[in-house]
């Protein structure tokens, strides 16, 4: 259930921080990718070296790296996460979270997080019982956060009572239960195409386009985080994806088509997000073409991958595509949907600011094969991906 999940583990200044190392290990064993964000006080209890050795990633603690000035973006982190766990959570961190006191990286990350947040308090019994702590916990719950109640038992203070951070195994169990409820596509196979294609002219030149692949990658991740088995067929891009996704790299439209055809057979859902080059050079020159005045490159049409799949689509399969349009957007998109035998098409308009290639945001309208339209506001591509996943859920066969 946690395979491929992006988890932020927030660690604060409590003696229970030593258990965070074990919690990290358990999460990684379950296949999650863990990013530690630690408060300055947390570092007094457990060293970042231990934690980064476990996660294979640098631990984030400050807003900037002191010597390089490199900024750590809490906003990017907040968007990356499928879940944030604060374990151990001290009374002080709980109070800051409840009141938005954003004076460290952990709190700013929490305030930016779009994913569910789980809080595992750890403190002495009287601190835990105190009305201010209880009021803060209630406040956190009222904001939609999940409190993993502390256990009763022997405390570091020598006292006995409620306040001991829940055991790492129990925290992992809690998360697994939470995600098993959210695994909307468990057992479903999803195929996504993403990025541009490169059509070779000679050994050093090609015809391509500006597609960054971000939208397709975000869709692949969004399906994977809902339990789907995802194959991502990717053109040349500068992106990475979580280990839970099967990624197949291709260059040309022909290669992408061959892989897509072989994978479609066993797919329940296919989302065609790649910006496939419509044409490829007729001839490929094995040696570098020399400059000699004017030249013409003769182009021949590439296969239409979406239409090829649409022609063999079975009743129980869902096939969706994208349409990037500049004029008569809706009618052109509807024509594409019909021509390619799609179940729905995601329309991007070149007229919309902040949408399409190169941006982190996108503005879409989804048109179904019955002609129903749903328009969405400008959103981050990760949120757009979640909207597409939610739309696909309505059609799930
Ligand atoms: N597509 C595809 N194979 C192609 C061209 C497009 O699979 N050779 C898919 C895209 O991934 C997208 C949809 O078809 O899901 C529409 O792509 P788009 O480039 O907007 O449309 P085209 O059919 O190429 O039409 P045009 O470029 O003339 O607008």
Structure at a glance:
The chain is an alpha/beta fold and 397 residues long. The chain is 35% helix and 24% strand. Cytidine-5'-triphosphate is lined by residues 193, 253, 272, 274, 276, 278, 302, 304-306, 321-324, 336.
CATH class of the largest domain: Alpha Beta
Number of domains: 2
* pLDDT averaged residue by residue: 92
- What does the main sheet amount to? 8 strands, mixed
Architecture (CATH level 2) name of the largest domain:
3-Layer(aba) Sandwich
Task: Give me the CATH superfamily of the largest domain.
Answer: CoaB-like
* Overall radius of gyration: 25 Å
Bound molecules: cytidine-5'-triphosphate
Number of strands: 21
Overall shape: elongated
Strand content: 15-25%
Helix/strand class: alpha/beta
Q: What is the helix fraction of residues, given as a range?
A: 25-40%
Protein architecture, described:
- With 397 residues, the protein is of the alpha/beta class.
- It has 2 domains: 6-180, Flavin prenyltransferase-like (Rossmann fold, 3-Layer(aba) Sandwich), CATH 3.40.50; 189-395, Rossmann fold.
- It contains 14 helices and 21 strands.
- Helix 1 packs parallel to helix 3, helix 4 packs across helix 6 (105-112) and helix 5 crosses helix 8.
- 44% of the residues are buried.
- It binds cytidine-5'-triphosphate.
- Residues 193, 253, 272, 274, 276, 278, 302, 304-306, 321-324, 336 line the site of cytidine-5'-triphosphate.
């Amino acid at each position: 259930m946690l395979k491929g999940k992006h988890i932020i583990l927030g660690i604060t200044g409590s003696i229970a921080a030593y258990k965070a190392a074990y919690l990290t290990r358990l999460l990684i064993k379950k296949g999650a990718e863990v990013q530690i964000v630690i408060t300055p006080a947390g570092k007094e209890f457990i060293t970042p070296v231990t934690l980064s050795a476990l996660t294979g990633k640098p631990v984030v603690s400050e807003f900037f790296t002191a010597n390089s000035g490199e900024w750590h973006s809490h906003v990017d982190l907040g968007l990356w996460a499928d879940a944030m766990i604060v374990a151990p959570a001290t009374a002080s961190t709980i109070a800051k979270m409840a009141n938005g006191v954003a004076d460290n990286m952990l709190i700013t990350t929490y305030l930016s997080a779009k994913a569910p947040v789980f809080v595992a308090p750890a403190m002495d019994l009287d601190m835990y019982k105190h009305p201010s702590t209880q009021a803060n916990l209630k406040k956190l719950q009222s904001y939609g956060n999940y409190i993993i109640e502390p256990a009763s038992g022997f405390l570091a203070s020598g006292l006995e009572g409620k306040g001991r951070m829940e055991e790492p195994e129990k925290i992992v169990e809690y998360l697994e239960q939470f995600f098993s409820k959210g695994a909307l596509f468990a057992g479903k196979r999803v195929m996504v195409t993403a990025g541009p294609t490169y059509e070779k002219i000679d050994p050093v030149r090609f015809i391509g386009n500006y597609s960054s692949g971000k939208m397709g990658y975000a869709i692949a991740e969004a399906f994977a985080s809902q339990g789907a088995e995802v194959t991502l067929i990717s053109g040349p891009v500068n992106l990475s994806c979580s280990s839970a996704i099967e990624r197949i790299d291709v260059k040309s439209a022909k290669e992408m088509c061959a892989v897509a055809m072989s994978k479609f057979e066993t797919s329940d859902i296919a989302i065609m997000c790649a910006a496939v080059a419509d044409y490829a050079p007729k001839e490929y020159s094995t040696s570098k073409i020399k400059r000699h005045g004017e030249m013409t490159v003769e182009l021949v049409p590439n296969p239409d991958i979406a239409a090829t799949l649409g022609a063999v689509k079975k009743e129980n399969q869902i096939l969706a595509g994208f349409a990037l349009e500049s004029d008569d957007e809706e009618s052109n998109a509807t024509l594409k949907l019909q021509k390619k035998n799609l179940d729905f098409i995601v329309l991007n308009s070149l007229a919309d600011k902040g949408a399409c290639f190169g941006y982190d945001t996108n503005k879409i309208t989804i048109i179904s094969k019955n002609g129903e339209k749903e328009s969405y506001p400008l959103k981050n591509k990760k949120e757009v991906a979640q909207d597409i996943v939610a739309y696909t859920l309505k059609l799930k066969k």
